[in-house]
Design a protein that fits this description.
Elements: E1 12-17, E2 20-25, E3 28-32, E4 35-37, E5 42-44, H1 59-62, E6 70-74, H2 84-92, E7 96-100, H3 102-114, E8 120-123
Parallel strand pairs: 6-7, 6-8
Antiparallel strand pairs: 1-2, 2-3, 4-5, 4-8
Length: about 130
């Protein structure tokens, strides 16, 4: 699927397929099986099982400045709830969590960045 939207600054997710998420960041174009993404960077990610998700697994994106409004968490092919302790730990840092399946998260990233929102994302494989 190709995603068309207004483009915010930084990397954008332009589509997804069975191989992963298609990302454009300036002149760079690539496909990531799973990824972490911020308004400034994108990186391949090897996520833990969702039930073992903790702040350490997302340390690469949690340190962005200014602090993200919330984490857009794509949980794979279907919506899975992250561990309550993980959600509480992020909320204690003033960061909300929006969990959804990874396809919806990829589409939401494009819309939110098109609006200029300062969010971070972590998307599990499709």
């Amino acid at each position: 699927m190709r995603i068309d939207s207004e483009r915010g600054a930084g990397p954008i997710i332009t589509g997804f397929s069975a191989g992963g998420f298609k990302v454009e960041a300036g002149s760079f174009k690539g496909v990531y099986r799973a990824l972490t993404i911020s308004p400034e960077a994108v990186a391949e990610w090897t996520p833990p099982p969702i039930e073992a998700l903790d702040l350490e697994a997302l340390s690469a994106v949690l340190g962005t400045e200014p602090r993200a409004e919330f984490l857009l968490l794509g949980t794979g092919a279907t919506l899975q709830r992250p561990p309550p302790a993980f959600t509480r730990a992020l909320e204690a840092q003033g960061i909300g969590v929006e969990a959804m399946d990874s396809r919806a998260a990829a589409r939401a990233w494009a819309v939110l960045r098109g609006e200029g929102r300062w969010v971070i994302g972590a998307l599990y494989p499709l």
